[in-house]
Structure formats: structure tokens, C-alpha cells
Predict the 3D structure of the following.
Amino acid sequence: MTECTNGQTSLNTHDETMITKSIKKICCIGAGYVGGPTMAMIASRCKHIQVHVVDINQERINAWNSDELPIYEPGLQQIVSDARGENLTFSTRVEEAIQESDMIFISVNTPTKTFGIGNGRASNLEYVEKCARVIAENSDGHKIVVEKSTLPVRTAEAVQRILISSGKPGATFDVLSNPEFLAEGTAIEDLEDPDRVLIGGDSEQAIQCLVDVYGTWVSREKIITTNLWSSELSKLTANAFLAQRVSSINAISALCEATGANIEEVARAIGTDSRIGPKFLKASVGFGGSCFQKDILNLVYLCEHFGLPEVAEYWYQVVRMNDFQKRRFSTRIVRHMFNTVSDKKIAMLGFAFKKDTNDTRESAAIYVCRDLIQERARVTIYDPKVNLEQIRHDLKTLMANGQGELSAHDRNLIDNNVRIAHSAEEAAQNAHAIALMTEWEEFTKVDFEQIYTSMKKPAFLFDGRNLLDRDMLMDIGFEVHSIGKC
Ligand code: NAD
Ligand code: UDX
């Protein structure tokens, strides 16, 4: 990484006149939660552009070509079915897709490093670098390479250097940064009507090519153009600010529980101040998802790298608070259940990190489930979109962390103490407690009178999302514990 000396560093390597004026063929490397929906939206709005989404994961590509898409996202099936076979293709033919395209999006995963320098903080850029190399090897003429993945500030410089040094003679490249702001569960509406589209780059003509793609359905005032580094850094900063709001309200939720204040009343009172605003003030069991923690850790690493330890420490506290909130929830369960959950059945409602997605990455449910089985509880989970295989995989990954491999003891706990149910009612049958982890709409429609009858007494209910009607549950007879309420 190079220290920033001025914001105007130019990466241009070619004559501006060589740029293809109108984009006819796009390819996207990475058919995940971002690549799939984003490209499906471009294909559905830009019928004049052929869109080819490629991935090295054959199973994932097969799923994209089937009626059972690899990711659950409301509205996605429809736009994929409409465009697939017309101007939207999914395949593993990475090299061919690059050769044929004018514009190549890199949308591969950038997880937190789990080894070596920056272990536990820095982003693992291995997959991005591999993309840059395969693009270099398969490009003739001029290509516009678009960073869609979330990347540390100044990654474009590394991508550009690889493209130049490994590219074929005569091949030229522009690198743009176009981070994605969609949230899972609302990806299609976010893509259809984004708050903004952000494009960073040096070449005005390359930027214009991408502006023209989005301009097909997004109004021009919503398309912000910046230099490369501002664009890369804005993405990390946006996620850090959003996560900070959740950690801030969660910090106050702990104080509410200690004092008798009510977190929803406090959130409403502060959210009506137009300078603060009402969104992202929902206290919860803790934020999850593949982005928030990873991106803040990356920001922390960058601040440390650039000799800003105070700034690094400031942002790290957002993650620390989130860990505290998750742990606090499991501790409250144990404490209220007479300080032992050993051999007690706990029904866990929801495992995804939020509603309307099948994604479980960094879900608070994984951490709470780990804590409960370590206390020897028997946990039965029901999530409308997550299967047992995924749940066991998540627990094994978390519990192996640190030691590198899973101990026989932990493996036994996961295999013997974690079960799956096919409905909330089945999960709660004979349970000592319910722990609600994900705010799925269907949990508000469950017959809690019937569930109460089927449970052991006292019947505890820990609402990690403040989703359910607390008064109604208490009237039925439940002992209810919510976030930020006594
Ligand atoms: P993902 O894990 O769902 O998908 C990434 C895909 O890239 C995988 O299918 C993987 O097989 C593929 N891949 C990896 N290396 C490859 C290679 N060399 N060639 C071809 N395919 C390769 O990840 P995601 O959630 O879509 O995230 C992608 C990027 O977008 C990340 O940088 C993430 O931070 C960012 N992002 C994610 C979200 C989100 O909500 N998930 C939102 C905004 C930004
Ligand atoms: C986030 C960003 O919102 C999105 O812009 C970015 O592109 C990717 O990362 P995502 O992780 O999909 O999106 O979902 P988001 O809605 O941001 O929720 C993240 C986590 O915070 C979830 O676990 C959610 O339940 C939690 N959350 C969110 C709260 O606990 N309270 C809130 O008020 C809001």
C-alpha cells in the first residue's frame, strides 16, 4: 500500500480516445449476494447489454441456472427468470466471459484475513488479485475494470499495477470503483431505487460509460462521481457509520435494562431530531451480516497501518460493543433461567442475520447458540430459510476459531445438542424457553397461546429483536425478557 501524497494520483495507462463509448457486453466475476442481484438488475433494465455472470463455484452457478436460486431475496426470482436466457447468462467460463466483455465487474468475496499479517483485521484480497490476473491474461484491446467488491482504500492501485504488468501487449485498462450499497433482504428495491450510486475513477470517459449503464434507470442526480480513493473509502465509512448507530443504541439498551428506561421510547425520542433521524436505531441482540464487522475491522487495520491508533481504537469499540451485546443476551438467558440451562430445551426462532435472507454470515444467532450449547442446553432451531447443514457448519467454524480445528468435545456438543424443527410450534414443543433471534414476519403470526400450553413452566421468552407483543405474551403467562426493557 502506498502512503497518500495527493488525491490526484493518475492511473491512466492509455489514450482516452481508445475507450469503447457504449457498453454492449458486461461480465461480472463472482455470483454471490452482490454479483447475482446486481447483474440481474442491470440485465433487466438494460436490454441492450449482454450480461454474463461467472464464478468458479459450479454448484452456485448450477443453482443460478435453476428454479432454486442460491440466495433468497424477495423479488429476485422474478427478475432472474425474466432476463435469464435473454441477456443474462450464468456460467463458469471465466476466461471466455472476460475476452468477450467491454466492462468487467469484480464482485468476489473479501473476507477478514484469518492468517499472517493483519490476521483478524485486514481484508483477504487474494480473490480480488486472482481476478485481476485472470483479466490481464485474457484481455485484448481496452477494458473497463470495475471494483464492485468492498475494498481497502487504494486497492485500485494494486489492481491497476497487476493489469499493466501482466497484461498482453497493446491491452489497456481503466479501473473504476463502484461499491455496492444494497442491504440483504431488500436488495431488489435497493438496486431499483438506490439512495445513490457511487463511481470513483480517473478517466472521465470510463466513468461516463458506467454512468450511462446506471443512467438507464437511476436519475443522474443520484449518481455521485468521485476520485478512486474517496469512492473506496466511502464504502467502508458508510458501513462503519451504520454499524456505529446499532452499537450506540445497543449500548443504551443495556443502560435501559438497568434503569427502567425503555429503549423504544428513547429511540423514538432521539430519532425525531432531524439531525439524528429515525432509521437504524432498532436495538437488537447485535448486528450480523457479512459486511459490518469485516468492514470495520478493515477500517481499523487501515488506520493502524497509516499510524492512526486513536482512530483505530475509536472504530474498534463498535465491534467490541457488538460482541458485548451478543454475550449479554446469552448471559441474561442463563441468569433468568435459575443460572442453569444444562439439559434444558431452548427453542431458537430464526438463525439468519436478519429477516428475508438465507444468509447466516456473522449472525448473532451463531454466537448465542454457541454460548447456550457450551452451557449444555439442548437447542432446537427453526428458521424459514436456513437448514441444519448450514447451522452446523456455522457453529463448527466459530467453535474451531482460535484452535484451528474443532475439539472432539465441541463436535459432540454440535452433533448432539443442536436440532432443527420445521415450524416455530415444533421447536417450542416441551421447551423451557424461546429465544427469538431473527425478526421474520411469520413469527408475529404464531399462535403463542398454543405454544405456551406446550412448553415447560415457567415459560421464558427472550425477544432478541423486540418483535413480539410483550403485553400479549405476558397476559398469556410467559416470562418475557426484551432488549432494553425491564
Ligand atoms: P459471496 O461470498 O456471496 O460471493 C462471492 C463469490 O465470488 C463466490 O460465489 C465465490 O465463489 C466467487 N469467487 C471468488 N473468487 C473467485 C474467482 N477468482 N473467480 C470467480 N469467482 C470467484 O460474497 P458477496 O456477499 O456477494 O460479497 C462480494 C463483495 O461485495 C464483498 O467484497 C462484500 O464486502 C461486498 N458487499 C457485500 C454486500 C452484501 O450484502 N453481501 C453488500 C455490499 C457489498
Ligand atoms: C449492510 C449495509 O446496510 C449495506 O448498505 C451494505 O451494502 C452491506 O451491509 P446488510 O448487512 O445486508 O447491509 O443489512 P443491514 O440492514 O445493514 O443490517 C445489518 C445488521 O444490523 C443486521 O443484523 C440487522 O439486524 C442489524 N440491525 C440493523 C440492527 O440490529 N438494528 C438496526 O436498527 C438496523
